[in-house]
Specification:
The chain has an 8-stranded parallel barrel with strand order 1-2-3-4-5-6-7-8, surrounded by 7 helices. It is globular, with a radius of gyration of 18 Å. Strand 1, helix 3 and strand 2 form a beta-alpha-beta unit. With 288 residues, it is α/β, with parallel strands linked by helices. It has a single domain, classed as TIM Barrel (Alpha-Beta Barrel).
């Protein structure tokens, strides 16, 4: 397809997304205060076909998820990421249309952002509403501090994807992202260090701080770290990695997480019914 046709298709897609979100930007939606702790379902595009990803995303939203992250694996090609974002967005459009035709349905339920959570500058898609534009603050490697961002920024600018300024901190046990990202892991007792990181993030102007224990971690981020980071004002706190049960989600929420992310839980669910049950249980605990 010629470049101009591709650009036209992407711009039309962007317009559809912008119209669906009314006037609120994704950043405003994420950072608004006074909300209970909300839930994000992370979909790794490498782990299922786009259609299955879309079905999982819809089930998650029906069960109370307020945002979909697309990302995770480090080596997923752009095409797979794009096909996954597109499939999710198309299913959301259909649900919004169906809800608009029925007086008993709430269209707004389906107006949740689809946000890229990239492992690097390669896993991008113009069909996303926004991107967590991250600095892996505790990496020892220049690549994760600034180089990947330099590569991705022109693409994000060209396709007008909302960048969400995010400090990303990998905590113990860290998992694969800790290894690949060459992170100096933050230990559960490092409450002063995490405070310094959170202050630094706020001083850089980041709006979001993501505390990550690593996907599939056998223990989530320690609540003392969450509490310490939360004491810095002006940051919206996302916490993920190793959260599988409502109790773990509630512990993180009570310590100050504004958002809880689960990914492995979705991949491990037996089917959509099981997924609905697990995500509903987490959301029930978060709202009580
Ligand atoms: C990974 O924090 C997310 O970046 C989700 O972790 O897969 O352990 O839920 P889990």
């Amino acid at each position: 397809m010629p470049d101009s046709a591709i650009n036209m298709r992407f711009m039309t897609q962007r317009l559809m997304i912008a119209m669906r979100r009314d006037d609120e930007t994704v950043l405003t939606y994420i950072t608004k205060s006074g909300e209970k702790t909300r839930h994000i379902t992370l979909i790794d595009p490498a782990k299922q076909a786009p259609k299955v990803a879309a079905e999982r995303a819809l089930t998650a939203i029906e069960s109370g998820s307020s945002m979909i992250f697309v990302g995770g694996s480090t080596d997923t090609p752009d095409e797979i990421v794009h096909a996954t974002c597109t499939a999710i967005q198309e299913m959301l459009e259909l649900r919004i249309f169906a809800a608009s035709q029925s007086p008993d349905s709430d269209e707004d339920q389906w107006k949740v952002p689809v946000v890229l959570f990239p492992g690097g500058s390669h896993a991008l898609s113009p069909a996303a509403d926004a991107i967590t534009f991250m600095m892996l603050m505790n990496s020892r490697e220049r690549r994760f501090l600034i180089d990947e961002q330099l590569k991705g920024a022109p693409y994000i600018d060209k396709f007008d994807i909302d960048p969400l300024p995010t400090g990303y901190l990998v905590c113990h046990p860290g998992g694969k992202v800790g290894e690949v990202g060459q992170a100096d892991l933050i230990m559960p007792s490092d409450v002063d260090l995490v405070k310094s990181y959170s202050l630094t993030a706020a001083m850089y102007g980041f709006k979001i701080l993501y505390l990550e224990a690593g996907s599939g971690a056998d223990s989530p981020v320690h609540e003392d770290l969450i509490r310490s980071a939360k004491s810095t004002s002006g940051l919206t706190l996302i916490v993920g990695g190793g959260i599988r049960t409502p109790d773990q989600a509630k512990l993180a929420a009570d310590a100050g997480a504004d958002w809880i992310v689960t990914g492995t839980l979705t991949e491990d669910a037996d089917d959509l019914k099981d997924l609905a049950y697990k995500i509903s249980a987490i959301n029930f605990f978060l709202s009580n």
